[in-house]
């Protein structure tokens, strides 16, 4: 190798190193641009929302406008909390999960077992379309189905039905995709041993894909936790803690909307949003950790 060729190779190596550094810099820059809005939003929520966070904030009902106005005039923390919203949210999310999880898993198993059938293809397409339907439309459907004809009024049950409709497509698709990742030989081995088909599903496929199924369920719950529009048409809201699922019930997103319409409750908007953000972040972090273990 002569001197000229050595110089040419060194120049090529330097250009490659320069290109690598340039691409790395672009990746870092655009990564920072992507995450900066999230960091700014979380920072703003923490800065403005932490002042109202206390034990009373978690165990007391929402205050009235006069109490909030008096506290602000005296330079004090707004009394009361969002206990009615937290309890209502938990009730409706648990009910929605109880409706959506078994139905979604059964449909997902059907899609996995019948990939080429016309009904399966139609169901899969319908599930994909439902993921893009605006939440206010699903709330309107729940209003017509449940509020008008089942409970004859606004209720936590109607709210949970609307949330379950929103959760369903994500659980269906995550179930199907999770089952596809399980080696087919595992299912064939179980069938070859004479195991009944339903036991293969219940004791082989579902336990093997449990982490993936659980991740899809958590993502579905995370999606509906912050929904306001469907609950405005179904649950309506309540200023007190309500444990009767046939009566109007409050939720944290509904309270945020109510606080927004009252200038004396501005501080409670930030605190309620912070609580909701923390809950959604925790659920997403749990689902990501579970997803890592499945790889």
UniProtKB/TrEMBL annotation:
<keyword id="KW-1133">Transmembrane helix</keyword>
<feature type="transmembrane region" description="Helical">
    <location>
        <begin position="86"/>
        <end position="113"/>
    </location>
</feature>
<protein>
    <recommendedName>
        <fullName>Phosphate transport system permease protein PstA</fullName>
    </recommendedName>
</protein>
<keyword id="KW-0592">Phosphate transport</keyword>
<feature type="domain" description="ABC transmembrane type-1">
    <location>
        <begin position="86"/>
        <end position="287"/>
    </location>
</feature>
<dbReference type="InterPro" id="IPR051408">
    <property type="entry name" value="Phosphate_transprt_permease"/>
</dbReference>
<feature type="transmembrane region" description="Helical">
    <location>
        <begin position="153"/>
        <end position="172"/>
    </location>
</feature>
<comment type="similarity">
    <text>Belongs to the binding-protein-dependent transport system permease family. CysTW subfamily.</text>
</comment>
<feature type="transmembrane region" description="Helical">
    <location>
        <begin position="125"/>
        <end position="147"/>
    </location>
</feature>
<dbReference type="InterPro" id="IPR005672">
    <property type="entry name" value="Phosphate_PstA"/>
</dbReference>
<dbReference type="Pfam" id="PF00528">
    <property type="entry name" value="BPD_transp_1"/>
</dbReference>
<feature type="transmembrane region" description="Helical">
    <location>
        <begin position="268"/>
        <end position="286"/>
    </location>
</feature>
<feature type="transmembrane region" description="Helical">
    <location>
        <begin position="200"/>
        <end position="221"/>
    </location>
</feature>
<dbReference type="GO" id="GO:0035435">
    <property type="term" value="P:phosphate ion transmembrane transport"/>
</dbReference>
<dbReference type="GO" id="GO:0005886">
    <property type="term" value="C:plasma membrane"/>
</dbReference>
<dbReference type="InterPro" id="IPR035906">
    <property type="entry name" value="MetI-like_sf"/>
</dbReference>
<dbReference type="GO" id="GO:0005315">
    <property type="term" value="F:phosphate transmembrane transporter activity"/>
</dbReference>
<keyword id="KW-0472">Membrane</keyword>
<feature type="transmembrane region" description="Helical">
    <location>
        <begin position="21"/>
        <end position="42"/>
    </location>
</feature>
<keyword id="KW-0813">Transport</keyword>
<keyword id="KW-0812">Transmembrane</keyword>
<keyword id="KW-1003">Cell membrane</keyword>
<dbReference type="InterPro" id="IPR000515">
    <property type="entry name" value="MetI-like"/>
</dbReference>
């Amino acid at each position: 190798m002569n001197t000229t060729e050595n110089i040419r190779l060194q120049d090529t190596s330097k250009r490659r190193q320069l290109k690598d550094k340039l691409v790395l810099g672009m990746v870092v820059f655009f990564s920072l641009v992507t995450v900066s809005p999230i960091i700014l939003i979380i920072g703003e929520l923490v800065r403005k929302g932490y002042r109202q966070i206390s034990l009373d904030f978690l165990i007391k009902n929402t205050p009235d406008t006069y109490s909030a106005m008096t506290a602000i005039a005296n330079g004090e923390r707004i009394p009361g909390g969002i206990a009615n919203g937290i309890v209502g949210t938990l009730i409706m999310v648990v009910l929605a999960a109880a409706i959506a999880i078994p139905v979604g898993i059964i449909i997902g198993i059907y899609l996995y077992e019948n990939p080429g059938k016309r009904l399966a293809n139609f169901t899969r397409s319908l599930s994909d379309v439902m993921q893009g339907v605006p939440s206010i439309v699903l709330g309107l459907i729940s209003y017509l189905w449940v509020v008008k004809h089942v409970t004859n009024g606004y209720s936590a049950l109607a709210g949970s039905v609307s949330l379950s409709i929103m959760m369903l497509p994500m659980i269906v698709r995550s179930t199907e995709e999770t089952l596809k990742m399980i080696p087919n030989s595992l299912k064939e081995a179980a069938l070859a041993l004479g195991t009944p088909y339903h036991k293969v599903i219940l004791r082989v496929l579902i336990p093997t894909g449990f982490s993936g199924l659980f991740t899809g369920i958590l993502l579905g719950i995370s999606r509906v936790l912050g929904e306001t529009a469907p609950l405005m048409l179904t649950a309506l809201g309540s200023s007190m803690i309500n444990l009767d699922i046939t009566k109007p019930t409050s939720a944290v997103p509904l309270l945020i909307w109510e606080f927004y319409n009252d200038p004396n409750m501005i501080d409670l908007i930030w605190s309620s949003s912070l609580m909701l953000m923390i809950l959604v972040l925790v659920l997403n972090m749990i689902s990501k950790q579970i997803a890592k273990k499945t790889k």
